[in-house]
Every structure is written in C-alpha cells, then in structure tokens.
Design goal:
Growth Hormone, Chain: A; disordered C terminus; single chain; 16 helices; mainly alpha
C-alpha cells in the first residue's frame, strides 16, 4: 500500500473503527445502568441494548445495497449522523427519565453498529485485491485504541453533566461527528457499473465450499466469543473472583481481539487464509481446554485472551475468503447476507449464553462451544488440502 490515497483511506477507516468501537464500549458499559434508574423492573434494563442489536441486525442488509447505490462514503456518513442523533436522544432521555425515549435513542445508535462492519470491506475497495488482507487487518486494529479510550471516556463522562450517565451519551453524540469530519476526506472508488444479468443466483453462490467456510467461520467466531465472554464474568463471580479481576480479564480479551490485527494480514499473505483460519479454530479449542482446567483468575485470563486472538484470526480469514466468493454485481448481496448472519448470531448467542450457563454450567458451556468448532476445523482442513492439490496440478501442467 504505497499509494498516498490508499494509505490515507485506510487510516481514516481505521480511525472510524476506533471511534465506533469507543462509542460501543461506552454504550455497553452504561446502558443497563442508565436504564436501571428509569425502570423499577430489573428484567427491563437490558432491553435498550437488545433493541440496539436488533436495529443493527435489521439495518445491516439494506446498508449493503444502500452503499452499492450511493457509495461507501455517503453510507458511513449517514450512519454516523443517525448515531449522533441517537446519542443526543439518549442523553435527553436520561435527563428527563424517559425509558421509551431511551429505547428510541438506542435503536438509532444501533444503525452505526449495522454499518460499521463494512469498514473492512471498504478497505478492500480502497487498497485493491493485492493488499486486501493488510488493509482489513489494519482497519480492525483501530479496536486497539477503542479498548483503551472506551473505558477511559466512560469513566470520565459518567458525571460530566448534572444527571449521572447523561454525559456518557453526550460523548456518544459527539464521537460520530468526529467520524463525519474524517470521512469528508476519504476517497473510495465509486461503485463499478456492471451488468446485472451477469449476477448468479443466491443458490449458485451459496453452494460454493469457500462461501460456506467463510460465512460459517465468521458466524462461529462471534458465536464462541459471545457465549464465553458473556458467561465468563458470571462464572468468575460465582468462584469468588473480584470485580477487579473480572475487568482485568475483559481487558486481556479485548486486547487479544485487536492487537493481532497489526500482523494478521501479513500472516494471511505469507501462510495462506486456510492455515490462519485453522490456527484461529485451534486457539479457540486451546482456550476451551484452559477454561476446563481450573477456576483461578489465570485460567479465565489466559482462556479468554486466547478466545480474543482466535476470534481475530477466524474473523479476518473469513472476511478474506468471502471476497473470493462473489463477482462485482454480487458484492452487495453477499456482504449483506454475511453481516446479517453475523449480527443475528451475536443476538442469539448473547441471549443463549446466560440460559446455557444457568441450565448446565461453565464446563458444559465450554464443551458445547468445542463441539461447534470441530466441524469448522474439518472444513478448513479440507479446503487447505484441496488448495494444495490444485497447486500441485497447476505445476504439473
């Protein structure tokens, strides 16, 4: 990526990833707490977060087609503007103790969550096929900044205004405006004019083994992370680990998610997508083995940090594989299906994690996660074998 325009585009997308991640961490940290002040029934306090993820899930598929027609830049600016409006609405709701208005603000904030995953695909558009892995990896590395800035800003802004938590949402309103300012300078190639009659049917696309591997890896990377990360703090508390230990584990997990992005793209380029995907699955299986080996703080910290690294390898490998499965006319459809499937998986896994932990326990939850990973491991090994065979055949011709 030696072209100045390409580098600046990727840097802006990485900055937007960092800003969006910071916003999500703030909302995740205080949403339930703010809702708890507004409602008397504790069962309702997670409703705003659920609405946020539902909003993201519903918007992410049409977002892909919106950007196909009007371009990535306008799509990202639109979603940031809606999110800023959501932050202002939520702040007003907190100040006026209005739970229903707070839910509306959460839904608007969720729009950005539905658009943000396309930052990595925008990096591919900006960098081109030859540098796609490094570009996607670098954009995802913006999460490293968010892992530090999110908790810091959440703590600084909690009493920033007279009403507790209102200041948090003032920042949630302000952060997307910074993204809009940065996006003004981005210059991503416009959508390519193509002949729609060249588009294959969804069935033809879906039966590709690479497509099945890409979408299942993306979904499972989030599924494993969600069910283990949501359940881990509860299990830790049940085994007498302090809140400070829990936050230390969470920080290790978040850093595990994003720090490898500094070199994952290079690993994929040097060793191949299939190998890094398999390595991600093996790291997740290793994390499960660590989780099953004991209940000390070190077990949780190592186990959940490995989950973060495994997620990074699986997610970026899946994203790289997905770009091999579509033609230009099919890009919006395939990317939209992929992001919808991932966000739907996150929503279901978030709900199912607590239920599975309550019904079966921490050990059984980990065993269940391992069972989900084994078919993916076999599929990844099959693809690696098939590509090796194709290379041998090509050299013999």
């Amino acid at each position: 990526m030696n072209n100045f325009r390409t580098i600046s585009n990727v840097l802006i997308l990485s900055l937007c990833q960092a800003i969006g991640g910071t916003e999500r961490i703030i909302v995740f940290a205080v949403s339930a707490l703010a809702a708890g002040v507004m409602v008397s029934n504790p069962a309702w306090i997670t409703i705003p977060l659920t609405i946020q993820y539902l909003s993201a899930t519903l918007i992410t598929f049409p977002a892909s087609f919106l950007m196909k027609r009007y371009g990535r830049k306008l799509g990202f600016i639109f979603s940031s503007g809606v999110s800023a409006l959501g932050g202002a609405t939520a702040m007003f709701a907190v100040q006026n103790n209005s739970f229903y208005l707070f839910c509306l603000g959460s839904a608007l904030i969720g729009v950005l969550l539905g658009f943000a995953p396309y930052y990595r695909f925008a990096a591919v558009d900006a960098a081109g096929e030859s540098h796609k892995n490094q570009a996607m990896s670098f954009v995802l590395a913006g999460g490293i900044v968010a892992s530090f800035s999110g908790p810091i800003l959440a703590n600084l802004s909690v009493n920033f205004l007279d009403i507790t938590y209102a200041g948090n949402f003032l920042f949630v309103c302000f952060l997307p405006i910074i993204s809009i300012g940065a996006l003004y300078f981005i210059n991503i190639p416009p959508p390519v004019e193509t002949k729609e009659e060249d588009t294959r049917s969804l069935r033809e696309i879906a039966v590709q083994p690479i497509f099945l591997l890409a979408i299942s890896s993306g979904m499972l990377s989030f599924c494993i992370m969600a069910i283990l990360m949501i359940a881990a703090p509860v299990s830790m508390k049940d085994h007498g680990i302090s809140f400070g230990g829990i936050t230390w584990m969470i920080q290790g997990h978040v850093l595990g998610m994003f720090v490898p992005s500094l070199f994952t793209g290079t690993l994929i380029r040097n060793y191949g997508t299939s190998r890094i995907l398999i390595l991600g699955v093996l790291l997740n299986l290793t994390s499960i083995a660590v989780n099953l080996s004991g209940y000390g703080l070190i077990h949780y910290w190592v186990g959940l940090t490995l989950v973060g690294v495994g997620w990074n390898f699986m997610y970026l490998s899946a994203s790289s594989l997905l770009t091999e499965t579509y033609q230009e006319t099919e890009k919006a459809l395939v990317q939209g299906i992929n992001e919808f499937a991932i966000l739907l998986t996150v929503s279901i896994s978030s709900l199912g994690s607590g239920l599975l932990l309550e019904w079966f326990g921490w050990e059984e939850l980990n065993l269940f996660a391992g069972m989900l990973l084994l078919p993916l491991l076999l599929l990844g090994m099959w693809l690696l074998y098939r590509r090796k065979v194709n290379v041998v055949r090509a050299t013999e011709i």
